[in-house]
């Protein structure tokens, strides 16, 4: 019940946040019209129309400043804004007060739009948790909730079901889809004595297992906790104006008091407060971020966290998952080799494809798909098809009894694997391939090697990435041979293979403790904790899981990974723009203060000067919309 209440509260908070943004837009539109009426002295109301902007935009700022001061003695930029508003109203400068309130509300809206978050990843991850388990007691099977499974229980898992606990297979053979934990694109064959993890999916054969870790100790629950803890540890960047707010307030108040004491003119003191309002300073960061987000969106990057690009600008390492990120995540036939003088490589390929037609295994489907794509031939129907879970298939094709599978299947049917075939298999295995042995009439005749395929753009992307000063790292759940083969093709020398979700998280944490912020790029459910832990998480939105996308700060909608170097370069350029905006804003503030002290500026002119500074900041930020690094 508590979980349902918590979910409902989270959804309500998101709705209120969205409603707040819509409300702010309406208030700004009304206030903007009111200020225009005030400029042209339109006698629409019996009072200055600028009061509408003061009430709608100014009152919330004043209330927030007062609440922050009273409850936490928290001095932010809105404290100085409130002082300027009150002072301007007291001396009758209604338009100046309304304009300052409008500009500050506009900056707040831009920040809200920039940092608006849309996350539901943890909820979806929880949905992957197994719901029930088939527990065997005294030879009888009964279905119980998965959370009631205890260590030592005997459990039966049928094809298509999710493994309810971590444990060891006692009887049966099968293939397990471990993508949720390791990200591997292919199911892994399992037999008696092999370990299985909760949350993984049993693809083909039924088996019985002994539970060793269940409930909160299981793999899937540990991963959920990792995602939550990694997110909680990610620091958020505080606005520059708020970081400097204490000093801004002190300097502004001292300047105003001293000027009033020396000249005796309160209007000069009020002008100082007005021109010292950090309007341009508040706009400096969010406008640049919004423009950069727009630029990134044109290239398929959906930035979900407002400060993600700020964090991306300082990353030193770019960590990549292999399957589905640097590669397509789809197995393809890499080689066909015949060891029989009577059968050619093409005939081996045709016989195997025919035998695999009825197979549901991804490797079998890949053989059939690749054969048809290469030779454009229709395959004949087969008879006597038999699938052996965890081993391979048998079928009669072209008048021959064919078998295609692993070495255990060859041993079962009495087909010896000769030295030449073993040597060929070892060669392909060392290159990260998966090998299918092929036999005809109980005699081995060759093999087919399959492997994942490197994306065409990966190598060029890695080379360009190094040019931005970012070092690539491969962190994958695949075996060492497959990882090293793909890494060498892509141009990556820093490799971590055989990684579970907690391993990926620890590797990223170790880099970041050495002051090397990491950008993690992944696509699988098993990447979610690492995406959360990294300084910036980027998920492959097209081929990736929904959970990985929700866990990340940025989603790559079209999977065009070659644009990643542009995104990092854009983030660095954005920070240069922000620094220019801040420098200009501060310089304008101090020049305006000097002019206010000497009496050159009055509150209205001061507000207009400040407004011009805000416009210049927005225009400078807008250049980021079409920015592209020259090659």
Would you mind describing this structure in some detail?
This protein has 631 residues and is of the alpha+beta class. The chain has 24 helices and 22 strands. The protein has a seven-stranded mixed sheet, with helices on both faces. Strand 18, helix 19 and strand 19 form a beta-alpha-beta unit. The longest helix has 38 residues. The chain is elongated, with a radius of gyration of 32 Å. The two termini are 57 Å apart.
Task: Summarize the structure in short.
The protein is α+β, with helices and mostly antiparallel strands. Helix content is 52%, strand content 17%. The longest helix is centred in the N-terminal third of the chain and has 38 residues, at 2-39.
Jot down its keywords.
631 residues; alpha+beta; six-stranded antiparallel sheet; seven-stranded mixed sheet; 52% helix; single chain
State the separation between the terminal residues, measured CA to CA: 57 Å
**What's the number of helices?**
24
Can you give the mean pLDDT? 80
Going by helix content, strand content and strand pairing, the class is alpha+beta
- Radius of gyration, whole Å: 32 Å
Specify the oligomeric state.
Answer: single chain
Any low-confidence stretches, pLDDT <50, length ≥5? Answer: 1-18, 114-126, 229-238
Helix content: 40-55%
| Overall shape | elongated
Relative strand content = 15-25%
Can you list the strand order of the major beta sheet? 10-22-21-20-11-18-19
- Main β-sheet, in a few words? 7 strands, mixed
């Amino acid at each position: 019940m508590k979980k349902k209440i918590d979910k409902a509260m989270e959804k309500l908070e998101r709705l209120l946040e969205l409603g707040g943004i819509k409300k702010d837009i309406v208030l700004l539109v009304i206030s903007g019209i009111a200020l225009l009426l005030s400029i042209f002295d339109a006698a629409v109301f019996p009072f200055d129309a600028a009061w509408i902007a003061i009430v709608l935009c100014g009152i919330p700022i004043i209330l927030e400043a007062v609440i922050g001061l009273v409850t936490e003695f928290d001095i932010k930029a809105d404290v100085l804004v409130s002082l300027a508003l009150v002072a301007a109203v007291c001396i009758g400068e209604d338009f100046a007060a309304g304009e300052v309130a409008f500009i500050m509300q506009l900056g707040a809206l831009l920040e809200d739009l920039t940092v608006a978050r849309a996350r539901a990843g943890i909820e979806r991850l929880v949905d992957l948790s197994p719901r029930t388990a088939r527990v065997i007691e005294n030879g009888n099977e009964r279905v119980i909730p998965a959370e009631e499974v205890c260590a030592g229980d005997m459990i039966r898992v049928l094809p298509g079901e999710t493994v309810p606990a971590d444990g060891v297979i006692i009887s049966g053979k099968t293939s397990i889809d471990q993508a949720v934990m390791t990200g591997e694109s292919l199911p892994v064959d399992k037999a008696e004595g092999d370990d299985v993890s909760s949350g993984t999916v049993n693809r083909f054969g039924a088996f019985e297992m002994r539970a060793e870790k269940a409930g909160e100790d299981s793999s899937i629950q540990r991963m959920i906790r990792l995602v939550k803890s990694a997110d909680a540890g990610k620091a958020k960047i505080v606005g520059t104006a708020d970081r400097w707010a204490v000093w801004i307030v002190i300097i502004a108040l001292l300047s105003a008091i001293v000027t009033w004491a020396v000249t005796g003119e309160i209007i000069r003191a009020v002008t100082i407060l007005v021109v010292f309002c950090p309007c341009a300073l508040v706009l400096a960061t969010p406008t640049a971020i919004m423009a950069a987000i727009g630029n990134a969106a044109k290239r398929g990057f959906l930035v979900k966290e407002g400060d993600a690009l700020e964090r991306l600008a300082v990353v030193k390492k770019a960590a990549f998952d292999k399957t589905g990120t640097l590669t397509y995540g789809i197995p393809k036939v890499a080689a066909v080799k015949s060891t029989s003088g009577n059968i050619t490589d093409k005939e081996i390929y045709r016989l195997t494809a025919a035998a695999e037609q009825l197979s549901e295994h991804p490797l079998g489907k890949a053989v059939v798909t690749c054969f048809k794509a290469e030779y454009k031939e229709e395959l004949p129907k087969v008879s006597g098809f038999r699938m052996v879970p965890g081993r391979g298939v048998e079928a009669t094709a072209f008048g021959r009894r064919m078998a295609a599978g692993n070495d255990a299947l060859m041993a079962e049917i009495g087909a010896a694997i000769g030295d030449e075939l073993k040597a060929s298999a070892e060669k392909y295995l060392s290159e990260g391939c998966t090998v299918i042995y092929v036999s005809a009439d109980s005699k081995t005749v060759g093999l087919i090697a399959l492997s994942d395929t490197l994306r065409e753009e990966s190598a060029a992307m890695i080379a360009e990435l190094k040019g931005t000063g970012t070092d690539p790292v491969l962190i994958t759940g695949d075996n060492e041979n497959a990882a090293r083969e793909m890494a060498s093709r892509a141009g990556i020398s820093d490799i971590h293979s055989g990684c579970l979700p907690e391993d990926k998280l620890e590797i990223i944490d170790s880099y970041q403790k050495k002051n090397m912020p990491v950008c993690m790029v992944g696509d699988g459910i098993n990447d979610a904790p690492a995406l959360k832990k990294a300084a910036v998480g980027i998920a492959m939105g097209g081929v990736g899981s929904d959970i990985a996308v929700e866990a990340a700060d940025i989603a790559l909608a079209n999977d065009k990974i070659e644009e990643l170097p542009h995104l990092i370069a854009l983030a660095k350029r954005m920070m240069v723009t922000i620094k220019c905006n801040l420098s200009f804003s501060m310089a304008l503030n101090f020049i305006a203060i000097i002019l206010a002290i000497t009496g050159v500026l009055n509150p209205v002119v001061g507000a207009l000067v400040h407004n011009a500074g805000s416009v210049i900041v927005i225009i400078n930020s807008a250049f980021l919309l079409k920015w592209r690094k020259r090659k």
